[in-house]
UniProtKB/TrEMBL annotation:
<dbReference type="Pfam" id="PF00702">
    <property type="entry name" value="Hydrolase"/>
</dbReference>
<dbReference type="InterPro" id="IPR023198">
    <property type="entry name" value="PGP-like_dom2"/>
</dbReference>
<keyword id="KW-0378">Hydrolase</keyword>
<dbReference type="GO" id="GO:0019120">
    <property type="term" value="F:hydrolase activity, acting on acid halide bonds, in C-halide compounds"/>
</dbReference>
<dbReference type="InterPro" id="IPR006439">
    <property type="entry name" value="HAD-SF_hydro_IA"/>
</dbReference>
<dbReference type="InterPro" id="IPR051540">
    <property type="entry name" value="S-2-haloacid_dehalogenase"/>
</dbReference>
<dbReference type="InterPro" id="IPR006328">
    <property type="entry name" value="2-HAD"/>
</dbReference>
<dbReference type="InterPro" id="IPR036412">
    <property type="entry name" value="HAD-like_sf"/>
</dbReference>
<dbReference type="InterPro" id="IPR023214">
    <property type="entry name" value="HAD_sf"/>
</dbReference>
<protein>
    <submittedName>
        <fullName>Haloacid dehalogenase</fullName>
    </submittedName>
</protein>
<comment type="similarity">
    <text>Belongs to the HAD-like hydrolase superfamily. S-2-haloalkanoic acid dehalogenase family.</text>
</comment>
Amino acid sequence: MDEAPPVDGDGMALDGTRIDGTRIDAVLFDVFGTVVDWRGSVAREVEMWSQERGLGIDAADFADRWRERYQPSMEPIRHGEREFVPLDVLHRESLEALLAEEQITASADEIERLVLAWHRLDPWPDTIEGIARLKARHIVAPLSNGNIAMMLDVAKRAGIPWDAILGAEVVRAYKPAPEAYLRTAALLALPPERCMLVAAHNYDLEAASQCGFRTAFVVRPRQYGPDQRIDLAPEGDWDVVVDSFPAVAAALGA
């Protein structure tokens, strides 16, 4: 058996290949809020549309209320009550319901434009550097509930250097269902313990950890806006706790 490399006081491998004696081959990322600023990006697009229409919408509030429908929209799929559909479909349905609630009329083209706002999300300032550093020594890919076309568009626009596009649409399961994590590891021909999930959401890391993944919590204190109250601190015994992607890379020796 290979001898494990030296570790620091927190159990993080100094050579970046092992944590607690386990080799890490794939570093996988939650995307919304972790890799990209979904709230600021969607609010920007809503604000532009609102101004063009003269609607006077509170764009940040609209983005928040749209996002509030995100988890509930996936529940019927998680419980087998609905066939899997891509997140673009769920985003469209949530948007149409929100517009109806607000008694706002929108053309099909306007709805399409707003749905595609989720394809134009801005990365956090440290995103590209950190992923590029990790890519030199690890497989890097999204493990997101976003669909393939969305993840591709976000990556191409932002210059995110993924090795592959993985996630819900590929494995036909929405996080935090165990299948989302386990099938992703299987696609990479890796046992779960040789995969690490990087996320700014404690619930996501908890689900991944229960599946055997290693975990890295990255604090994103403004992912929910200036009044954020959740995910400001780790709520589990995560392997790495940092405030940026370059710090994740440093913890893994990259």
